[in-house]
Structure formats: structure tokens, C-alpha cells
Amino acid sequence: MPDQTEAQVVLRLDNITKTFGALTANDAVSLTLHKGEVIALLGENGAGKTTLMNILFGQYTADSGGVEVMGAPLPPGNPRAALDAGVGMVHQHFTLAENMTVLENVTLGTRPLFAPGLNRAAARARILRLAQDFKLSVDPDARIAALSVGERQRVEILKALYRDARILILDEPTAVLTPQETNDLFETLRTAVALGLSIIFISHKLHEVMAISDRVVILRHGKVVHEGAIGDTDRHDLAARMVGGEVSAPKAVPGVAGAPLLALRGVSTPDRGSAPGLKTLDFSLHAGQITGLAGVSGNGQSALADLVGGMTRPASGALVLNGADVHHWSPRTAVRAGIARIPEDRHKTGTIADFDLSENAILESYKDPPFSRHGWMNWRAARAFAQRIIDSYDVRCPGPGTRIRLLSGGNMQKLILGRVMEGAPQIILANQPVRGLDIGAVNYVHSQLLAARDRGAAVLLISEDLDEIMALSDVIHVISEGRLSPPFARGTMSPAQLGVWMAGHGFEETAHAS
Amino acid sequence: MDIFEIFLTASFWTAAIRIASPLIFATLGELICERAGILNLGIEGIMVAGAFAGWMAVYSGLGLWPGVAVAFAVGMGFGLIHSILTVPFGLSQHVVGLGVTLLATSSTYYAYRLALPEVTSPPSITPFQPLEIPLLSKIPVIGPALFAQTPLTYLAFAMVVIVALVLYRTPLGLAVRAAGENPQAVAAQGLSVTAIRMGAVMVGSGLMAVGGAFLTMSAFNSFFFEMVSGRGWICIALVVFGAWKPGKALLGAILFAAFDALQIRVQQTPLGAGIPYQIFLMMPYILSILALVVMSRRAEVPGALMVPFNKGER
Amino acid sequence: MRLEPVANPTALRTLAPPALAIAATVVIASLLAMLAGANPFSVLGLILKGAFGSKFALLETLNRATPLIFTGLAVAVAFRARLWNIGAEAQLYAGALVVAILGAGLLDWPAILLLPTMAILAMVAGAILLLIPALLKVRLGVDEVVTTLLINFIFLLFVSMLLEGPLKDPMGMGWPKSARLIDEARLPRLIEGLRLHWGFGLALISAVIVWVIGTRTTLGYEMRAVGLNRNAAEFAGIPVGRVLIKTALLSGGLAALAGFSEVAGLKGNLTLDLSPGFGYTGIIVAMLALLNPLGVVAAALFVAGIFVGADSMSRAVGVPTYLADIMLATALLLMVVAILLTRFRVVRE
């Protein structure tokens, strides 16, 4: 760790305050980053991390306070200023144009717009040199659409390095990586630090924070509530400071496996663009069990979720529901068959933003009595249903007539939970059920899934967060390139062992063995 | 004349290239807009406005090239209106585009009536004259077709090369394409999506207007109501047909124009005389629909076409 | 600049932007009238007077509003479900064509049978015309904006061909128009002695029916869900393709009723200038009405008033009637901004 009193200050955020109406997103936040230092920025969703970074990158203007990079103040509200001053950001959701090459994405905006040419040869040489220096192997002429998630992240880092960034900010960089890829990333970051770069690492995975950072800064409700060297603290302490008190995650005691409720027999689906389809999958969901699906995003999770949810049909193979082959398969038949579906994206597929709560509550059941009869809607029944969900799932809102776009993510998810869980479903498809939620809501959703399992439901939990999978699942499958690993019982695999499968190894061996 | 013989005549190909010219300008204009992520349904009205503005400028005493510049500027003006509403405000590109077409058409007709209140038939100007390129224009069939056209046709072909070069070989073109594929990528690199998209819509609209001006300043010598008659909509189909690539769009425009030139000639054959002329007039529109249907499966639509970009939203 | 949603809009925020949009439209129209050398106040006054100033003017406005209510409803229904039907013009002519064929003596039935038959078959014709682009959209993903627009041109040429061929009135002195309808095929007057036919009544009834469909039926719920978020609707199990097809049938049928009502109610035969762009103006009507079927009636009266008023103003002071089209285009563009501003605030960041 560099000596902080001696080392040069490269970034200073000074008393940043930003309010949105009644909400104070950042309240006098100060932060100092030194040369060659790694700071972990911790905080729950909504703690103000994103706002702070948006201010640094000129997307928002702070109400008061200032930013200094390398001792020079940064003009507010200018997105270019931070980039030009040598600050680079790797966003959680990559900002890459899929249909363009690595080189095009990296060089975008690095030359004056009205310059005559692209100078591809020089750019290519520079990218290859940077890739070598920072251990970021990637083909400059590959199209982004053809790259894996890990490779895309390398392109994002290259984008910053290509602009001579001296400060790298990484927002939840490991959320989408395998444990091995995370190690590679940390290798790159250590190299960068050795070469004199400084890093801000935004995360909520405490063990990673402990592994890579020198110092930690914790934000809560827009305020800095803790700042200190990483050696002076431990994971438990950090977690408590992050949420402001002790939180107890729901305790998962192992479930008792019952009969298979849903099974896939040699199911394949076609690839969709760069997203792989399913490759002759055999798989079953048992009553009274949570089956976790681990894997790097974009490896066939969507294909499996779409299949179980009724959005697609098997191109070959059979879908077996409660012991019987399914022939007509659609979202509607899936709902009718008693499958509760929590979609991956609650904004885009889970709800209709401009519908109110009652219209959203009946989205899957609007055609059934009492909500409609002979083609006529019964709005009174719909409102009563929504009110029941609001009451029993603790949805915070003014009432069933509220447009759902005005709800927080957590409350939106609770409505979806209520919508699908009301009929005590026997099969539950939970696709990224806690993505973007704060800890309170995360625990709520998890406890609901555990409760459903305990009453005998079969749960399929799809998540990119290996920690979540390992904490909740009775059985874990790993998916990679549309292939499925054998089931691993709770506690039989370490994260590193699962990571080997997530990276795509081990599948051939089982194929040969069987 | 036999239908087959038509293909061997120079006048047929000359006409095809002439008919293609306004389509090339307007298709390129629409292509630029869509490459930046904005569908511009203002095209039909902007072509009307360009046709009138260029012609009126020359009629009022300006030279031909300044007339083209006036048309371009008028097109940019309507492009500005379109882009303010669709880019920073992010309004429905369908509704705004139709609104701009309506506004451009009606204000053109209003201006025409104000400028020429009494006339029953519009006055004519001296349009661009064919410029024969020595030697090249003497090549049989393709010589007169390609090298004895008006300067505005040469400009149309030059624009295809220029637009392709800018799109694929310059930082500006890279930024425009990226804005149409993923505006977040552009914003993350410190560029203004708003400026790039607005700029693209304005320049694209300028080209559409020049396409309209070709009708009054090169193909004909006067302005008539209804003279654009759906050419703008056809150009939108041509952009899809050309898979959003300038070279292929050029090919599409020529193919399309050749067909149009053919139907005019077939009408005059004994075979064509027996068929109602409306059937022939329908052909371009039917062909456009067929082109859309054929291309629907393999079209490579820009990823963020018709997706508004709101800063700070991820 | 950035747009931020407003959680609980105040009455001022809801009312001021649309009011300002109308005011700005009037100001722009005044400036254009001045450009034509006229006194803006007298021009605006003459438009108002020409539209609503006398019994004759008012009836003229109601007559003009009738087809606009139908096409406005057609567009509103389609746009609600995000089906961009720009082809109401062709669908109108499809309806008119059916009436011109059946009503000129081909069916020798009493009015009580003939009129409903013609209305239903007209709706079928309009529905089929929109079914083609709707199927192309649902099955092949072909953008319906361009196809419906192109079909307008094709169908008008088709009508022109028929009017110069098999449908040409032998007594028409060479003009391309169809033979006059028999008396049984004409819509009766709404009130005896007033020049207003039952088409207007039918338009009002249609608006109420469309409103009921939208708010009270499962089909209406499905149509709104598909329009607001196609992904979510599909995920929830709403048959998106089928809903779009049903929407297309309803929309095309409504537009065709405009043609039915114009030929059977007002004109008595089919000519190529039956519609001065009622199909396109329907888009403005629907947008000004915020796609609300009952609002369509009000918006159609407003738009018809501007057209009728501008005609009479133009005869009086010589300002070109195209002023009306400019006013409507301006009102449309400003109104979409105004509606946005009732729900979002612009933040400078």
C-alpha cells in the first residue's frame, strides 16, 4: 500500500451535494484517491454511488462541491472533461455498439470528429500494445457481438486505457464474470496499479473488496458513513456499516426433494444471434427444492428461462410437466399449468409502466373470471385483487390506481411476486429475481422463494450472482454455451470448482462418460 | 418496339439514370438519418419543400447552384424541426415525421400561392442542362446514360461516394453509426448523442430537399402540386432494400428507376396500350412493397433505430 | 437537457402546455396571415365565423367533421395498439367503392336492408385492405407505415381505373365518376329539413362504441397492453399478433365507414376527389384527441371548423386556404410536445 501522506493525490471529490427534489442523493460527499491506490466504494442500491459517478462524468451537475483531477478543477456538467483529464469508467452495463468492431468501439470519439481519416493501422498497433501491457487479450477486428462477456469487459477497459486514463472506475465489474475471469481481472488491475494507475472499485461483494482494495469508503443514504484502510476492518463490520445495522439474510436449511414436477428430455432450441440456444438438455425440477442455475450471462440462461416460461418451444426433445408430455406450449399455457414466472427485466417484460397496479396485477389472468367474463372486464375484481397483493406483499404505494412507473424497483418486484404467487404455484421460475434491489427487498424476495419451497414448490433460480445461487440452492446446475452440467448437491462444490464449469470446462467429459 | 429491345436503347438508360437521381439524393438523406437512429418520415414533405425552394430561388433571379443551396438550407430547416422534437424531446418519430411532412407540404403550397397568386400554370425556369463528358459520352448505350447527364446527376453519384467515405472512413461517420447502433456507447466516450443525431437529421433532410429540387431544376423546369407523389415513401423502402448501405441503396435506386423507365416505354407498345395506364403507375409502389417484403428477413436494421436516447438513463 | 418524469402533475402542469400549444398555433397562423397582407384578427375572426357563425356554417362543419370522426377513430384505435395505420385514406375509398358498386342499383333492396348491408360490406372491404399490411407486419416484420402509405397510392389508382372503366357513369358526360345511388341506398337526414345526414349520428355512435371497447372489454385491455409494452404483453400471454390483427380489422372498418357515409350520405356517387385527405387528417384528429375516442369527436369538430372556416375566410380576403393545413400541422407538432410536458419536466443538466 502506498504511503498516503506522501503519494500524489490524483482525484479529489470535495463536499459534493446533489438533490433531486426532496431526495438528497449525495450529502457533502468527500473522497480522495492517491496515485497507485485502489479504493472500494461500497453502498446499497440507492446509496448514491451512481449519482456520484454521474457527477464526476458530467452527466449531472452538483448543487455544491467540486471535483479536482491531478490538482486541476474539473468544469461541471461536461461529459468530456473527466475523460480528457484521464478518468476512465467501466460501466456495469457495457456501453458497446454490438454491430461494430473492437477497434471501432475503442477509437470512437478519440479523434476530432471532423478529422479526415480513422488511421486504423496506428490504432490497431496501439490496442495490441495496450492489450499486451495490461494482459487484456482481444482481437481488435472482432465484432462485439461475437465476444464473450469477459472479452467485452476487456474492451471496456481498453477503451479507457486507449484514452490514457490514469484513474479507472469500475462499477460492479465482477457481477458478470466467472471466478476465474475475476482473477484475471484482478491481475489486470494489479498490473495497472503497478504502472501507476489508481482505481475506484464499486462493488457489494465484500470478499472481493477485501482482496483488491487498499481503502474502503462506504456510502449510505448519500453520506459517507465510513472511510478507512481495509486492514482495519472485516467483512462483517463492512456489511453492518453498509446497511446501517445488523441484517440477517434468510437462513436456508436444506429442502426435501420430492417428485419431479417439470423435466426437459433432450431439449434443444436454436441459437438467437450471438445468444446460444439449448444443446440437448436433460434436466428436472423437483418439488420442495430450489434448483440454482449458475453461469456467465449470455450462456443460454435466457433460452432456458424462455422455454420454461412458455416464450419458446423445444425445437427437438420433450418438455414434461407433471409426468405428461407438453404439446401446446405458450406463455398462456405455462401460466395455466401453474408456473409462476418472475421475469428477468421487470421494467421491460414484467410490467407495463403506464398501466396502474390493478391493470398490472391481472396481466397474466385478465381472461379468467372474475376479471373478465364473456369478453367484458370486471375492474372492481381487478382492483380488489391488486389491493390484496398490496396488503399481503407490503407493496408501498398510494393505491391500486397508481401507475406502476412511479414505484421503486423493490415494490414493483413485490407486485410481480404477488401476481404470480397468489395461486400458490407448484413451479416457480425466478430469473434474476433480486437484480438491482436493495438488501431489504433482496431478503424479502429470498424468504418468499424459500417459503414457497418449504410448502413443496419446485423453484428454478437463475442468477449471475454465484453467491446468491450458492446461498439458496439445494441443487446447482451450471450452464455454459447452452450446455448443462450435472446437478451438484448443496455444499459439494466450491466457487472455484463451479467457476471451472462456468468457464466451459468439464462438459465434454460428461458427454463422453454417459 | 419489342420489350427486349428497349434495354438496348440509350434513351432508356438515360431516362433510368435521370429518374434515379432524385431518388439517390433522398435515399442517401434518409439513410444518414436512419444510420444515426432516426426514422425521418418528413422526407415526402421535405422533398416538396426542396422542389419549390430551389425552383423559386432560381425564378427570383438566383443562379442554379445557389438555388440548390437554398433547397438544401430549407431541407435543413425542416430537419431542425424534426430533430428537436425527436432527439432531445424523444417524441414518436412516426407522428413527428408525418407532422413535418404535413407542415412542409402545406407551407410550401401556401408560399406558392402567396408568391404566385394569379397564375393558372406555373412559370418555368431554365434548368440544368446536360453536360456531355468528352469521349466517355460517346460510348454506345452507357455513354449517353452515364456521361451526358446534368451536373446535378453527377452530384448525386458523387454523393454516394462521399456519404460512403464519411460513414466508413472518418471519425464523424463512426460516431453517426455508433449513435444509431448504441447511443450509450457514444455518450460514454464523451460525445453528444443529441448533437450527432440532430446533425445527421439536418444534413439528411438537406439531401432530401436537393432530391426534390432535382425534379424542378433538372428533370422538369417548373413546380407542380403533387409532383413528388410518394417518391419520399419509395425512398424509405429503398433504404431498407439497400440494407442501410449507400452502395446498395444506389443499386436499388437505379433498379427501381430502370423499372419505372421500362413501364413508361411498355405503355407505348401495342401490348401496353391495351392495359389501363393506372396499372403502370401502380408498379413503383407495388415494387416498393415487394422490396420491403423480400428484404424483411435479412435486413440489418441499425440497433437503436427509433429508440430515443435520454441522457443519464441506463 | 434531460427529461424527468413528474410524479404528481399539478392542474397547471396538465392544462398550461396544451393551452400554450393552441395559443402558439394561433400566433403562427396570424403571422402567416400578415405575410399574405391580411389583418390577422380579421382572418381569425372570419375563420371562426365561417366555421360556427351561422346555422349553415355549423351544419357545414358537422358534415365535414363526420368523415373525420370515422378516420380519427380508425387512427386512434390503431395507434393505441402501436399499429401505425397511415392508410385510412385507402380504406375510406374501399368503403366508398363498395357503396358505389352495390348502391347504384346492383342490389334492389329496401333501405332498411340495403344500408346495413352496404355498411357492413364497406367495413369488411376496409378491414381487408388493412389486413394485408398488418399480416406483413405480424408475420414478416415489414414496417406498416410505409406499406400503408404506399397502398394509399395503389388503391387510389385502382379506384381511378374503375372510374374510367367498368364503374364509369354512362350519363356522366365523360367525367370519371360512378353512377348515382338509388334512393334506397342514401342515408336519410338526421333531422328533417336540416342538411345533416345519418352518417353524423353513426359517427357519434361509433365513437361511443369504440370508447366502450377500449375501457370495458378484454379486447380493449389487450390492445392497450400491446400498445404500451409489446414485450410485457407477450410475456404475460397476450396473443400479440392476434390482437394486432383484430385492431387492424376494427381500424380499417372504421375508416371505411367514412367512405360509406360520404357516398351514401353526402355525395351520392363516387369520384376521385371524394376525400381531400380525410385519411391523413384523421391522424391529426386522433393525436389532438390524445387517442381518446370521445376526444376524437371534439377534435374532429375543431379540425373541420378550421377547414370550413378557412375556406370561407379565403373566399373573403384571399389568404390561401392552405393556412388551415399549416395550422393543423403546427397544432399537431406543438401538441405532442405539450402532452410530453404535462408528464415530464425539462431539466438543464
Give a verbal description of the structure.
- Chain A: It is found in: Cell membrane.
- Chain A: This is Sugar ABC transporter ATP-binding protein.
- Chain A: Pfam families: ABC_tran.
- Chain A: InterPro entries: AAA+_ATPase, ABC_carbohydrate_import_ATPase, ABC_transporter-like_ATP-bd, ABC_transporter-like_CS, P-loop_NTPase.
- Chain A: GO terms for molecular function: ATP binding; ATP hydrolysis activity.
- Chain B: This is ABC transporter permease.
- The complex is a heterotrimer of chains A (514), B (314) and C (349).
- Chain A is of the alpha/beta class.
- Chain A folds into three domains: 9-243, 3-Layer(aba) Sandwich (Rossmann fold); 248-338 and 425-514, P-loop containing nucleotide triphosphate hydrolases (Rossmann fold, 3-Layer(aba) Sandwich), CATH 3.40.50; 350-423, no CATH class.
- Chain A is built from 18 helices and 23 strands.
- In chain A, strands 13, 16, 19, 20, 21, 22 and 23 form a seven-stranded mixed sheet that branches.
- The radius of gyration of chain A is 24 Å and the shape is globular.
- The mean pLDDT of chain A is 89.
- Chain B has a single domain (3-114, 147-295), classed as Orthogonal Bundle (ABC transporter involved in vitamin B12 uptake, BtuC), CATH 1.10.3470.
- Chain C is mostly helical and 349 residues long.
- Chain C has a domain at 67-293.
- Chain C has helices at residues 11-35, 40-52, 55-80, 88-106, 111-140, 144-164, 198-216, 218-228, 230-236, 240-267, 278-288, 293-317, 322-343, and strands at 2-5, 344-347.
- In chain C, strands 1-2 form a two-stranded antiparallel ribbon.
- In chain C, helix 8 crosses helix 10.
- Chain C is globular and about 65 Å long.
- Chain C starts with a strand and ends with a strand.
- The mean pLDDT of chain C is 92.
